[in-house]
């Protein structure tokens, strides 16, 4: 009998399978390509909410754990980069200064008001956030998927929830027995009959990828959207938010919206090379969801990562495993039980 079946291989599934491997627990993984939030992600890790200047929820726990997670592979996937918010006006700049004076965010924010970089339009200058950076998440997922294939641990197919059989102390799927199953399906959770009552909503995001030799930027910028350097003169710009369109197709509307703000931000030439879309799994209280199903004790979930999955999923997966294997308590504000009664 296996220890686990895992369904889904975005950042949530990767974090779970990594925690399982670290514990030398056996598993197989089912993954299809119905969702791609992690593959579409900008790769950004940002410790602050740039609008308010406040630290993101529990950043002092999530950020160090995420950095050590992304450094634990045989290649480095995290690059530390400053994040600059481009001020829209003098008033915006003044607000930043008073936010800084009234808050405890000095660990991540620099008081300095910075001049623009070459080829960047920032007449009202920029703030600086420290401690963040960019993760090459697409490369990491592709490499780890390849490794799991080599170990015969992955079925590239849709998991059919109707075929799951429950026994007293284990579950069984197509003849494979396992002690536990963990669903990491992203927005695909809306087709999961065991967790369909969870208030997970889709929020579509789109990015533009462009190439520019002249830009030569080695920092993350934000005006309306984020500009993220990916290396080799390639940059990402986005991402949009849309709660009404759940197709994975790139839209002309989002492209035009992003181009308006990209043209305001950079003054050199560039060439659009791609547009990517994905659906973020978001929760109405803006917190992720993890834990054990109240009826089926060997069924678990890690989901609802919203727009900060890359920073939060590694620690939450570790906590979920400690809960299942060692009985350690979960964080109440993230526990699935806040939505499903026992
Ligand atoms: C455009 C965009 C930009 C973003 N940028 C950032 C960013 O810069 N930083 C950040 O932290 N977050 C970002 N996010 C949010 C982040 O991507 C998500 O929080 C995170 O990727 C969610 O990961 P996940 O593993 O839960 O879901 P997913 O990445 O969607 O993975 C779920 C996987 O499960 C598979 N699956 C689903 N159902 C089944 C089934 N029945 N059988 C088999 N497989 C199944 C799916 O096909 C998929 O492979 C962004 C999101 C979008 C859309």
TrEMBL record:
Key word Glycoprotein present in the record? no
| Domain (FAD dependent oxidoreductase): residue spans on this chain | 3-320
Molecular function (Gene Ontology), one example: oxidoreductase activity
Give any Gene Ontology cellular component: cytoplasm
Annotated keywords: Oxidoreductase
| Superkingdom as given in the UniProt entry | Bacteria
* A UniProt-annotated Pfam family: DAO
Protein's name in the database: FAD-dependent oxidoreductase
């Amino acid at each position: 009998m296996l220890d686990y079946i895992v369904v889904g291989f975005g950042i949530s599934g990767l974090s779970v399978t990594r925690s399982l491997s670290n514990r030398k627990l056996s598993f197989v993984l089912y993954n299809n390509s119905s969702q791609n939030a992690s593959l579409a992600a900008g790769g950004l890790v940002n410790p602050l909410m740039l609008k308010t200047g406040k630290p993101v929820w529990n950043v002092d726990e999530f950020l160090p754990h995420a950095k050590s997670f992304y450094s634990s592979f045989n290649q480095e996937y995290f690059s530390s980069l400053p994040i600059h918010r481009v001020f829209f006006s003098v008033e915006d700049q003044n607000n930043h200064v008073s936010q800084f004076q009234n808050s405890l965010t000095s660990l991540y924010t620099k008081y300095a008001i910075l001049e623009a970089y070459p080829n960047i339009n920032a007449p009202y200058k920029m703030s600086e956030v420290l401690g963040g950076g960019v993760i090459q998440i697409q490369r990491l997922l592709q490499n780890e998927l390849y490794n799991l294939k080599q170990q015969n641990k992955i079925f590239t197919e849709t998991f059919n929830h109707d075929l799951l059989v429950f026994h007293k102390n284990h579950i069984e799927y197509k003849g494979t027995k396992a002690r536990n199953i963990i669903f990491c399906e992203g927005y695909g959770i809306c087709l999961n009959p065991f967790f369909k009552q969870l208030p997970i909503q889709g929020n579509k995001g789109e990015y533009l990828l462009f190439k520019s030799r002249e830009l030569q930027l080695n920092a993350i910028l934000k005006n309306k959207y984020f500009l993220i350097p990916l290396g080799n003169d390639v940059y990402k710009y986005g991402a949009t938010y849309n709660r009404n369109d759940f197709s994975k197709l790139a839209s002309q509307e989002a492209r035009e919206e992003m181009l308006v703000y990209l043209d305001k931000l950079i003054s050199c030439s560039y060439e659009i090379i791609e547009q990517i879309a994905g659906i973020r799994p978001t929760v109405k209280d803006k917190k992720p969801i993890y834990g054990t199903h109240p009826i089926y004790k060997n069924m678990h979930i890690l989901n609802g990562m919203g727009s900060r999955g890359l920073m939060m999923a590694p620690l939450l997966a570790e906590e979920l495993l400690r809960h299942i294997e060692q009985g350690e308590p979960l964080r109440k504000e993230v526990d699935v039980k806040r939505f499903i009664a026992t």
